[in-house]
Each structure stands twice: as C-alpha cells, then as structure tokens.
Design a protein that fits this description.
181 residues; mainly alpha
Amino acid sequence: MEEILEEEQQIQGEGETPIETPEEGQEETPEKEPQEKPEEDVEELKRKNRQLYARLKKVEEQLKKYKAQTKASEEVGIDPVQLVKTVSVLKDYSPEEVDFISKIAKAEGVSLEEAVKMPEVQLYIQARREKVAKEQKVPEPSSPSSTTKEITPEEIAKMSDEEFRKFEEEMKKKMAGGSGI
C-alpha cells in the first residue's frame, strides 16, 4: 500500500514544484535584507526629494511658457467682423499715421479704434496733416515779374488808352527791372 501512495504522489507531483509547508512548530518569516544605517537612508531620501522638487519646478516653468504661447496664439485668431471695423476706422489715415496710432494703442493697451478717439492722437494727426499741407503748398513767387498774367494781342487791342499806358509801364519795369537770365 505504501507503494501505491508513493506512485500517486509521484504522478501528482510530476512537473510541479513541491510546495513546502511549514511544520506546526515553525513560523514562516520573510527574509529581511540588511538595512543601511538610518542616517544614510534619510540623506538619500532628502537628496531624491530635492531632485524631484527641482524637476517639478522645471516642469511648472515649461507649463507656464506653454500656456503663455497658447494664449498668444488664441489671441492671433482674427475675428472678421472686428477686422472690418478696424479697417473702416483706419481707412482715412496714411500709413505713417496708422503706425503712430498702433504704437499709441500698444503703449496704452487699448484697441486701435479707441486709440483713434484719444485727443493726443487726434492732435498729432491734425498737426502732421497741417505740416504736410504746408510742405506741399506751392511757394509764392519771389519775384514780382512772375505775378503778372500773360496778355494776348487781342486783349491789348481792346484796351483803352489809359489801360494800355499802365500795361506799357509795367512791361518797361519788367524789362528794366532785371529779368536777367
């Protein structure tokens, strides 16, 4: 009978690793690795903590930069209606005036439409336009000879004697006055 039990145990145990069970008097105790000194362990944990904290700060900075970039890219999205309004407000201004308006708007932190309404901007534009108009104005002739108009022979024939004498005197003054070339 013992032989049969041994055979059954062999058949059941084929391919399996036999499990050892502790006997009643013995308790199972896990093997403990020898621990390092507690001081070294604390120092190691502090060092790892500092490293992790530094990594966390670095990731937070990158997150701030990313959020700023996404916010800026969201602001770049142009609303067509707002664009039409801006164009209609700025259509009466020269490129130089628009540059000035945009600089003021950026400096003051307001929209272009609001900047156009500012008294400082209006004063600048008015002064600039007056200056440009003054520069483009045809200068007055410096010599009096160029102020007389040309008279045709028909007009001379129709003149009265008195008008003709005045005309003749003016012509003599012109010729004598140094129409020098």
